Amino acid sequence: MYKSFEDIKLHPIGVIHNTEKQPSLIADENGLSMREDLAPTIEKVRKTEEMISEVILNSDLADHLEGIDEYSHINIIYWAHGVPRESRELKKVHPMGNPENPLVGLFSTRSPARPNPILITVVRLVGREGTTLQVTGLDAIDGSPVLDIKPHFKESYPADDVKVPDWMEKIQLKLKENKTKD
């Protein structure tokens, strides 16, 4: 059992604006499923890589951004507000909503349907105007609250001896193969 904590309250520091209005994965009591209009999955990945999203921070945070322009990539931490509260009760899911993938515990996936739907995405920083950051590669939907931003540098993530399950290797390989077909 864990120690009891005071109620944790997060305060958004900004909001995400883009053209993506609905989440790509639908979570309900039956698990996850990919939105039908997004098959095949790779099309969604390509669109996300090309789409420019604006991360608009609160105006009083301008000083917090000093030096951010020197990074090519940043981590955007945001709240998946499109996940209904009842969908946060899932314990096991098929990754990417694909029943061909094994049924695994939620914490073994990057599913947005989490007890606390806090998500993180590494994005390319393509521009900045005041407290507005233009990024590509952000898989958030329009209106998602931003919780934090951190610089990304490859040395902060292990590259050697990283182990992932076979099913995740297959997902990543398929995404990579489809990406190189363009």
SSE topology sketch:
Elements: E1 14-17, E2 25-28, E3 31-34, H1 41-50, E4 52-57, E5 73-79, E6 92-93, E7 104-105, E8 118-129, E9 132-136, E10 145-151, H2 166-180
Antiparallel strand pairs: 1-4, 1-10, 2-3, 4-9, 5-8, 5-10, 6-7, 8-9
Helix pairs in contact: 1-2
Plain-language structure description:
The chain is of the alpha+beta class and 182 residues long. 14% of the residues lie in helices and 29% in strands. It has two helices and ten strands; from the N terminus they run βββαβββββββα. The strands form three sheets. A six-stranded antiparallel barrel has the order 1-4-9-8-5-10. Helix 1 crosses helix 2. The relative contact order is 0.25.
Give the CA-CA distance, first to last residue: 50 Å
The CATH topology is: Elongation Factor Tu (Ef-tu), domain 3
* Physical arrangement of strands within the biggest beta sheet: 1-4-9-8-5-10
H and E order: EEEHEEEEEEEH
> What structural category do the secondary elements indicate?
alpha+beta
Helical coverage, percent range: 10-25%
User: Would you state the CATH class?
Assistant: Mainly Beta
Q: Give the number of DSSP strands.
A: 10
Keywords: Methyltransferase, S-adenosyl-L-methionine, Transferase
Family: Belongs to the tRNA methyltransferase O family.
Protein name: tRNA-Thr(GGU) m(6)t(6)A37 methyltransferase TsaA
GO molecular function: methyltransferase activity
